[in-house]
Structures are given as C-alpha cells and as structure tokens.
Amino acid sequence: MKVLVVGSGGREHAIVWKAAQSPRVDKIYCAPGNAGIAELAECVDIKAMEFDRLVDFAKTNAIDLTIVGMDDPLVGGIVDAFEAEGLRVFGPRKNAAILEGSKAFSKDLMKKYHIPTAAYETFTDPKEAVKYLETSKYPIVLKADGLALGKGVLICENKEQALDGVREIMEDKKFGSAGNKMVVEEFLTGREVSVLSYVDGKIVKTMASAQDHKRAKDGDEGLNTGGMGNFSPTPFYTKEVDEYCQKYIFQPTVDAMAAEGRPFKGVIFFGLILTADGPKVLEYNARFGDPEAQVVLPRQENDIIDVCEACIDGTLDQIDLKFKDDACVCVVLASDGYPVSYKKGYPIRGLDNFKGKDGYYVFHAGTAFNEKGEVVTNGGRVLGVTALGKDLKEARANAYKAVDWVDFDNKYYRHDIGHAIDEFQG
C-alpha cells in the first residue's frame, strides 16, 4: 500500500511511525511533514488546506489510504473532497467534524441527547454576553466557538476577568473568526482525562486513557497551550469510570451523530472531567490528540492501517483493539516564550542518541531543515520526548532521562509531567 498522512506535527509523526510498522505499507508520503517525519516518509510540499493539490497528488501517485491528522482540514471538508474523487480517506466528513469545529453545536448535541456536560449559554452578541456575566457565579469558563489551536478557552475567576475575556474573544478577535460565537460554561472541578476512540459510524472502540498537561509552566501555572506533555494510562480512569462513560457518553455520542444524519467515522477524542457528580464531557475533538497520540500509539498492539480501514468500511466490530500493559510518558520540549512569542531556527543537537534505543522515541512537532541540512527548531512545540516503562513512574523517569539526550538554544519544558501519579499513589 501507499499511504499519505496529512499534517506536520508530533501527532502526524506518531501516525507515520505507527503506519511504518505495518507489513501492508510499502511507501508513506506526508504533506507537508517535518524534519523528523522525513526519516520515515517522503515529505511533500503541499499545505494541509490545499485540498485540490492533495487530491491531485493522491490520484497521480495512486495513494491507497490517506490519514488526516489535523483539525483544520477535517473541519474544512478534506474528507468530502477526497471521497468525491473515489479516494479512501480516514477521518470524519465535514458535517461530522463539526463536533470539534463548533463548541456550540457539540453543547447543543449533548443537551438534546442527555450526554453529561456542564451547563452553558451561547452568545453571538458581546453585549448580551456581558449582561449574562453581570449576574453569573464565578469562576466561569469562556470558549471561542470555533478552532483556536487548543487555546480558545478562558477560565475567569471573577467578573472583571470575564468581561476582559468577552472583549478578547468577541471584540478584539484574539482567536479570529472562532470568536464570532462564544460559549459561556459553568466551571467544573475534578480530574481531567482524555479518551481517544476509533469510530466507524455505528460502533466506538476506545483506546488507552491518557492525561494532558495544558498549562505552559510547572504546577499547572501559565497560559493554556496545545499540550506540554502527556501520560498513559491515567490511574484516575478506573474500570467503573470506563463502564459509566461507555454507557452514558461514548456510544450515546456516536448514536446522536448518526441520528442527526452526521455519521462519524474516524477518531473522536473525548475530553472528560471526573466530577463529584460523575464524568462529564468538557469537549470533543474530531482527530487524534497531540500529544495524546504520542503516548497512546506506542502502546497500541494493532496495525493502525487495519483499524483505519475498518472505520472506513464500517467493520470495526471485527477488530479486537488491544493495548500493552505498560505505560508511556511524553515530555514536550518547547521554544522558550511559547505560546506567545519565541524564536525559531536553532540547530537541534543529540537526536542520534535515540537511535537503537528500544522504548525511547523523539517525535518531531516543530522542526525543519536549514540551508546547511541541519535539523532546526521551527515552532512553539519542537519535540515530544517519549518513553515507555513497566509502570508510570518508570516511564516518567525514562522520559526525563531522555530529555537530557537532546538540546537546542531556547529549550524549555515542564519538570512535572505526570506529577498526578505521585498524588494517586500517596
């Protein structure tokens, strides 16, 4: 088979890495890819939103399967464009990707089908939002309706912060057109966990649980980011929690989308919060998480190509989805200043230290080649240093050991990824 992966981040590197292990795959292309992906796949200079060029490339090169990693092209309708030309593609169609593309849509869906989530109101007029916030209980959560690179969520401790947030999202358009509509949500307290799942339109099969670290700085301080690290499994996602979520959240979501005439095929990422009143949905994503993919895919035993094709063909019931009993931790190495402003173009040293080391991986997120052919930093999140271990403590120790194997000017990372493990174990 010839496979095309669409995207350029750490998630896409993990997908390419997993696809490269399939005995069914002869050749992998990635558009546009990055310096790390280039070791496993032929990178193609086509951007993820250039649908016509991607379709032409897939037809010209007889691509057998395209896997779309990123949210923007999915929400924009890349799957529809490929299907219109008779091409096999893994991911939800545009009318299903709205599950991530509009927070207002997903909240309304949950309300209609009684899927547990936070109470909310939706606004298109900033004046109406301000009026509502004058008498609200605090803290409260403001969410830009559309895609905002994982950063369009503001937790406001008081009315003053909330009014500033309305100005940022709806008037100053800090997140662009994503802020044309805004969801105001009750603040929930509890442990946040991530559960990614494969879906074939009818059936949902969940992957191993994971837990993200969104804030930029140690101690969960600082601004929200796309994710500074992750671990899998999370000990807080117990068998009892799983049974509840399967019954009241996972399958009901898939059934609701089908009932709305929007059958979902691909990956649904369930962002959950474990409250005193039970698990609730914080958000949906319509694709693999980043860096969740980096800790879940190394633990997946199944051939990713088999699973993707089963989702496309509606035969997921024939897949016995299995994950190893080990644990995995990913520490993101970022450019200092992320997520606000940072410099790029610094040479990265020590990448060869990962070669031949079983159970240690370095997934490239924001890297490129300079004119000398050196691998250099090319983004806010640069690398995902990832390691396996027999349990979470060992995996974390291995990941932080590997953090020292690689270096670049401006390197920044959190020192407490997986700190919740210690709390759990007392």
UniProtKB/TrEMBL annotation:
It is an enzyme of class 6 (ligase). The keyword Manganese applies. SUPFAM superfamilies: Glutathione synthetase ATP-binding domain-like, PreATP-grasp domain, Rudiment single hybrid motif. It catalyses: 5-phospho-beta-D-ribosylamine + glycine + ATP = N(1)-(5-phospho-beta-D-ribosyl)glycinamide + ADP + phosphate + H(+). Its cofactor is Mn(2+); Mg(2+). One of its GO terms (molecular function) is phosphoribosylamine-glycine ligase activity. Pathway: Purine metabolism; IMP biosynthesis via de novo pathway; N(1)-(5-phospho-D-ribosyl)glycinamide from 5-phospho-alpha-D-ribose 1-diphosphate: step 2/2. Keywords: ATP-binding, Ligase, Manganese, Metal-binding, Nucleotide-binding, Purine biosynthesis. Pfam families: GARS_A, GARS_C, GARS_N. Belongs to the GARS family. NCBIfam families: purD. This is Phosphoribosylamine--glycine ligase. It comes from Bilifractor porci.
